[in-house]
Amino acid sequence: MVPKVTLDQWRVLQSIIDEGGFAQAAAALHRSQSSVSYAVRRLQEVLGVQLVKIQGRRAVLTEAGRVLLDRSRLLTTEAVAIEEAARQLRQGWEPVIQLAVENVFPVDILLETLKQFEPLSGGTRIHLREEVLSGITDALADDVVDLAISPIVPEGYMHESLMDVEFIAVAHRDHLLHQQGETAYGVDLLKHAVHIVIRDSGVNARDAGWVQNEHKWTVSSFAACINMVSNGLGFAWLPRQSIQTLLDNGELLPLKLKHGGSYRVPVNLIYAKGREEGPALALFIKLLKSVVEQGK
Length: 296
Hints:
The chain is an alpha/beta fold. The chain contains 9 helices and 11 strands. The mean pLDDT is 87.
């Protein structure tokens, strides 16, 4: 179907209501009152419904007019957004940012960055890939991402430090590992418990576990790992920031390990080879760094 009504006609109707009358709308639009009246009259003829009526000296909406006016505002807002997107594309803004994020990166930081980026993006879309371990290396090597966030930096790629993520060994408060008394124990004791690890998403997957035992269960994300540990199915080294609430309420407890109970992993921004940093990607990186800094 081809629209029979123009954006200009909707804009005239909106101005009549917003300004309070035909004369006021004509002044606001820098048009003659007769052209404003004609636009609305033609709009009503095409639609076959009355949109405006005169009460006293004011133009007010009919019930049908109220419904259609609200929808017309969405239409004109979207039209303006399309024009703004075109303007930014003319200025070199990227239509898409291809982003790969290692599963270790705190999801709340990523979501806050995306939340701040969206209203400033000018229509630039985000294509997000979640990877584990060597999956980031594969994505960069395959040249399918503009930017990666990962602890692992493949050889030959420009990168900069972003933040550290602390991992701690934990299990559910009722797990047998917490029934060993107050004395700290070595990792040998962990060989008799189920160790839950994250599966490498890369082509050449590698073992991400610390403890070499037969009681190892593998999942594809930290969210799944946290759920399993929270249900008492095993232990795992998990990012503190992702489980802080569970630690605060006592559902998860740190393991009493003599050594290796916690460690820190540096997370880096890694830039794809042979790609210029456009304004949209530069904005995303600036916002990401700001959100990380605010969280320290």
